[in-house]
Amino acid sequence: MGRGGDADAMPDEFSLIERLFEPLAGPEGLGLRDDAAVLTPLPGRDLVLTKDAIAEGRHYLSSDPPDTVAKKLIRVNLSDLAAKGATPRGYLLSCAWSAETPLDWMEAFAGGLKDDQSKFGLSLWGGDTIRVSGPSVFSLTAIGDVPSGQMVTRAGAAAGDDLWVTGTIGDGALGLLAAQGDYGATEPEDRDYLISRYRLPQPPVAFGGKLAGLASAALDVSDGLLGDLDHLCAASQVGARVDRSAIPLSQAFATCLASDEKYWELVYGGGDDYQILFAASSKQRSTIESHAGEAGIRVHRIGALTDDHVNGVQVAGSDGQVQQFSRWGYRHF
User: pLDDT, tens digit, for every residue of 33-59?
Assistant: First the structure.
């Protein structure tokens, strides 16, 4: 609807953009009244761009609150920027709304975007919005910048480098099970915590901006810890040895794990963590811990990279024996 119409009527495309998204636009987006955005890059900075999409029924549940869907969309992209050492600046948004999506759902979705724009310091620069006959799909392109020549890639790590991860691992995957009713948490607060981690990832954006010039290689943990580590190893032509006891777990996840060891599979390959997995020289340990403290996040050294590229990723238990596992990570195809 345009301004002054029936509050329950669905606006046309342009009125919808004016109502929901124009208030989110930054100066680069030209008020969303043109077909493109314009950006004047800062001297001595490189642009970093990343793109992710989330689909109803695959990346979020139809019952998830719309504001959390919007925030998850932003955060899964900011997780990628953080792993590149980039500072977020803006984003382009594409909304393919299911034909059944009501206006109040759209408004709450836009409210979630607004909240996270304020939280992470970025703005909307443009995009597109359409109706589709199938489930809703949202796609976001996030734009950030790093000092020239200092973007952190998956390649660049060397044998002997420490292997680090931020936050905790496994909560998102277990939270999805909890949201679907497949996990009977013994304590309601544990269940609520895990579901919140599935719906609202906590990418370490402030810490990510410190990685440029510090980490030798990095990526975000989105498809599973070991699968993503395997990607880093392949790009850097190294192997890795992970100490299973050093992988950081939340209290809620550890409680669940104590009742059933099968949940290690979610640690190894559950995905949906949106934390940063990175390598760095052992000489950087104190600097890394200092930056993490300043950013208010937890970092854990979980192993080291090796020159055993043939055997790739290995996980050692408390007895030093290499652990066997069946799930590397999530695969879309």
Answer: 655 667 778 899 999 999 999 999 888
